[in-house]
Write a structure and sequence with these properties.
Distance between the termini: 10 Å
Organism: Halorientalis persicus
Number of helices: 16
Pfam family, one: Glyco_trans_1_2
Number of strands: 12
Strand order of the largest sheet: 2-1-3-4-5-6
Helix content: 40-55%
Domain Spore protein YkvP/CgeB glycosyl transferase-like: 191-348
InterPro entries: YkvP/CgeB_Glyco_trans-like (IPR055259)
Structural class: alpha/beta
Shape: globular
CATH superfamily of the largest domain: Glycogen Phosphorylase B
Number of domains: 2
Radius of gyration: 21 Å
Protein name: Spore maturation protein CgeB
CATH topology of the largest domain: Rossmann fold
């Protein structure tokens, strides 16, 4: 079977999804969604909105749409051209926020391929996804709340959780020289507040954060992390890192912290499975999906608020054997149930080609 996968190039998730198809003997090709332009303008608009007590979302969306119109048009044209070239039996769109409804409608009408959308951001946040979902043969989302959100548009959205790639995440024998680690971008205020609280109350511990937080070209971000939030800024390694480095950090950490983005109303982010796949001890904010996928307390530990988190950090950081056992339990279930191979198998069982 010829499979065409299209989505962001970020963190090689498209390649991780492709591997199980290739292992089954299918031929996989790609069209990668182009990166966004004008992020600085969007961030400045966002900071201005905060200062003026205006959420600014409509203005930011318009600016993004304008700045990225040319690359979005080119991407949609490339997608159709690639279908003409490869004649796939299956088109798998990952995320899908830049696939125009008119494009997927054209593909559905003109070409004899099964179209599948898998949202690994909350799909109902994006206008192209909401308006275009009815033209896909199948819609999946990592986020359970999408099921009801899409239902109002008469769209049957199935839930397919995120996963991890075992080629990147596994246990390694390495010294634990980091007390508490967090890997992720500072996209939301909630993350910043949690991390600031921990840094303030855990001064004697080695707390490390990785992820792009500021640009030298953005004066608002520089002010935030170099002045108003200097204590947090001093703990951030201000760059993105690839999977193998992330796996080493999780193995080096006594406690791997997971803080979900607010879009994860009920769902579980990739970090949950990647930490488990690495055998790390994970402390995460609780979601409904986590409770259904993991044995809380035995394979993963959850917290309810920042005070509960602090209390559990102080408890577990002194209990190496408990941490290691929970990490081993998580590693076992992750490799047995939560790899991309498991998700592709589930997808193929639900998709008729």
């Amino acid at each position: 079977m010829n499979v065409l996968i299209s989505g962001p190039k970020y963190q090689s998730y498209c390649h991780s999804v492709a591997k199980p198809f290739e292992q089954k003997g299918h031929i996989v090709d790609f069209v990668f969604r182009p990166p966004y332009r004008g992020r600085l303008a969007s961030r400045i608009a966002s900071y201005y909105a905060k200062l003026t007590n205006n959420d600014g979302k409509i203005e930011i969306d318009r600016r993004n749409s304008f700045l990225n119109k040319k690359t979005t048009n080119a991407y949609n044209a490339e997608l159709v051209d690639k279908i003409n070239e490869t004649d796939p039996e299956l088109l798998l769109i990952i995320k899908g926020e830049r696939v125009r409804p008119s494009t997927i409608q054209k593909i559905s009408k003109k070409y004899n391929c099964t179209t599948v959308l898998w949202c690994y951001d909350k799909g109902a946040r994006f206008q192209n996804v909401v308006n275009g979902a009815k033209y896909y043969d199948y819609v999946f989302s990592f986020e359970p709340s999408d099921k009801n959100d899409f239902k109002q548009y008469d769209i049957d959205c199935k839930i397919l959780p995120m996963a991890f790639d075992p080629n990147y995440y596994n246990t390694i024998n390495i010294k634990e020289d980091i007390d508490i680690s967090f890997i992720g971008r500072m996209h939301c205020e909630y993350r910043k507040e949690i991390l600031e609280f921990l840094i303030k109350n855990l001064e004697e511990y080695n707390v490390q954060v990785w992820g792009k937080a500021w640009s030298l070209l953005n004066p608002f971000q520089l002010y935030e992390y170099k002045l108003s939030r200097r204590q947090l800024g001093n703990k951030i390694n201000n760059y993105d890192i690839e999977h193998n480095t992330i796996n080493r950090i999780y193995n080096r950490s006594k406690i791997c912290l997971n803080i979900h983005h607010p879009q994860s109303v009920m769902g579980t982010n990739p970090r949950t499975f990647e930490i488990a796949g690495s055998g790390g001890f994970q402390l995460t904010d609780e979601t409904e999906q986590i409770k259904s996928l993991f044995d809380v307390g035995e394979e993963i530990v959850t917290y309810q608020d920042k005070n509960d988190l602090l209390e559990k950090i102080l408890y577990y950081i002194e209990r190496k054997e408990e941490r290691e056992q929970i990490g081993l339990n998580a590693n076992e279930i992750a490799h047995n149930k939560h790899t991309f191979n498991h998700r592709v198998n589930t997808l193929l069982k639900n998709v008729h080609i």
